[in-house]
Design goal:
Structural class: alpha+beta
Number of helices: 3
Distance between the termini: 72 Å
CATH architecture of the largest domain: 7 Propeller
Helix content: 10-25%
CATH class of the largest domain: Mainly Beta
Radius of gyration: 22 Å
Number of strands: 11
CATH superfamily of the largest domain: YVTN repeat-like/Quinoprotein amine dehydrogenase
Largest sheet: 4 strands, antiparallel
CATH topology of the largest domain: Methylamine Dehydrogenase, Chain H
Number of domains: 2
Low-confidence stretches: none
Strand content: 35-45%
Strand order of the largest sheet: 1-2-3-4
């Protein structure tokens, strides 16, 4: 094995590291930050005082991270669990103190046939394991969206309404 890249990712120890799509790397450090890297360039990051105002950053620390490609799962030293959108780090799911103490690892349920059975109608499923000797399954509800046929119907209605309004405003338009 040859070292291909070296850079300073955190101030202090790195608690966990995960490989993501497009050669991205996610790191969780003892400096209370979680970072997404492309090579040695910081793409985006999370820090407690920016993302969870009002919660003292010294009380919480990211402990475990996993990147499914679409989502980033995080566990903390206080037992909290969160799911973020991987590319923007927008938080979609958060359970404060899901475990009694340190979350030691998190993992997404794979999108295999048995994994899809566990998912049911949910968008993602994250397993968390903690020092409290418990394993918990966290289900991310499917985000609601309009069906394509309804969106097309609404667009067609808007076009017809626009034409009618133009015909009323400018007789002889058509």
């Amino acid at each position: 094995m040859k070292k291909t890249l070296e850079f300073r990712a955190h101030n202090g120890e790195i608690e966990d590291i995960a490989l993501g799509p497009d050669n991205k790397v996610v790191t969780a450090g003892r400096d209370f930050q979680c970072c997404v890297w492309q090579q040695d360039q910081l793409v985006t990051g999370l820090c407690w005082h920016e993302n969870l105002p009002g919660i003292p950053d010294k009380a919480y620390r990211y402990q475990a991270c996993r990147d499914s490609g679409t989502f980033l799962g995080l566990g903390t030293v206080t037992g909290s669990v969160a799911i973020h959108i991987a590319f923007s780090l927008q938080r979609l799911y958060y359970v404060k103190e899901a475990h009694g103490i340190v979350v030691t690892d998190v993992a997404f349920v794979p999108e295999s046939r048995p994994g899809r059975e566990l998912l049911g109608g949910h968008e993602a499923a994250l397993l968390s394991v903690a020092v409290d000797s418990r394993c918990k399954l966290h289900l991310l509800p499917a985000r609601r969206s309009l069906p394509v046929w309804l969106l097309l119907l609404l667009c067609a209605g808007l076009i017809v309404a626009t034409i009618l309004l133009l015909q009323l405003a400018f007789p002889g338009f058509l």
